Amino acid sequence: MRTIIRNGRIITASDDYSADIYIEGEKIHTIGTNLNMVADKEIDAHGLLVMPGGIDPHVHLDMPFMGTYSSDNYETGTRAALHGGTTMVIDFVLQTQGKSLQSALDEWKGRSNGNAVGDYSFHMAVTDFNESTKKEIAQIILEEGITSFKTFMAYKGALMIDDRQMIGLMQEVKKHGGLINVHATNGDMIDYLIAKHRSEGKLSPLYHYLSQPEVTEAEASGRFADMADYTGCRGYIVHLTCEGALNAVRNSTKRNQHVHVETCIQYLLLDASLYEQNFEGAKYVMSPPLRKEKDRETLWAGIKQGLVNVVATDHCPFMWEQKLMGKDDFSKIPNGHPAIEHRMELLFSEGVNKGRISLNKFVEVASTNAAMIFGMFPAKGTIAVGSDADILIFDPNEKHTISASSHHMNVDYSAYEGMELIGKVKTVLLRGQVAIEGGECKLEKGYGRFVKRKTTSSGDRVIG
To answer: How much is the pLDDT for 456?
Structure first.
């Protein structure tokens, strides 16, 4: 398949220019003006932005959690992502305590193989680091191409590891060129507050938020940064939400340390006042919870300062019926929020159009930095000769409204219902094939490919 995209304004993390793009097969072959190649398909992008496809490095598809499963699987989730301009996601394989990493990976491959519409990769979540697990690290990195390992500093008894295990894992992962992702919240303090509120009969969704005050995230973020600095292991904090946590990262720069930081689109746009809506607040129960207006301002500033490197989603949707599992007790509400489809359009409308970030910064935090940090650049995350033809064609002026009645995620409500946006995905290409056109998905499940990733020991490749 040969395709030419003509007359577009090409935006990367560092460039802004007008040119044509000629694609042969899965790769970008030529970029230039007035290209005279013959193609099977021509796309006129006059008046539109042409950008690299988005990369969302934090999703949970078909994930077991709190006695149920997230409602988007690899087919529905990656298709919805494509509708929103995201051509690749990275999901989390969750080790079961007492079992091997390989057994968990085999389970996740059973869900994903042959089912994804868009491209995907995995992080390996280590919940039981011991001598047997330690022996698996090199094979997971070097043979499976999974170079990032997630740890939890919360969810004791299920996902949490202690600091002793964290140090051991960091040392082993560093040895083989990997990276540690972390859910940085103080699990012991959170468990204490949850038990306290429940014992006092305080069971509404508001107490999910009050059980995870800012200090729980700030303390854990600082502790993680200290351990990463001690071991020399590269660190990445997922879904950072608040001023205190970002200040802990800012403090680490005083010793010339670079901790990568991800926030999520909801933490930039929504706030904790939503938890006061009685049980409707369950729609926004996620961990960490939504924060205050001052935290949103801090995160936007952190993006401009280069402290916040990636805007992801932590997409983990549950049907309303599933959320009702916690109607009488906030601690039983499945934690999660649907956003995989709307991340790019929300970030553009609320970020670029409102002057909070530039077009180049938009591409940087929505695509390029994730590709660099997680060992996929320049195959992914940019528009360049030889790169995968993962391309988003975007109308910066089209207005539209978000609604559960029209979205493609497998969830029966929207956290952004009725929100009016400016800027809409028009056409999406994935490895040279038209994926989205005219509001329809043109690819079948199984087109999505698992992406093996390179090690990250070469340094902190990221745009700041």
So the answer is: 66
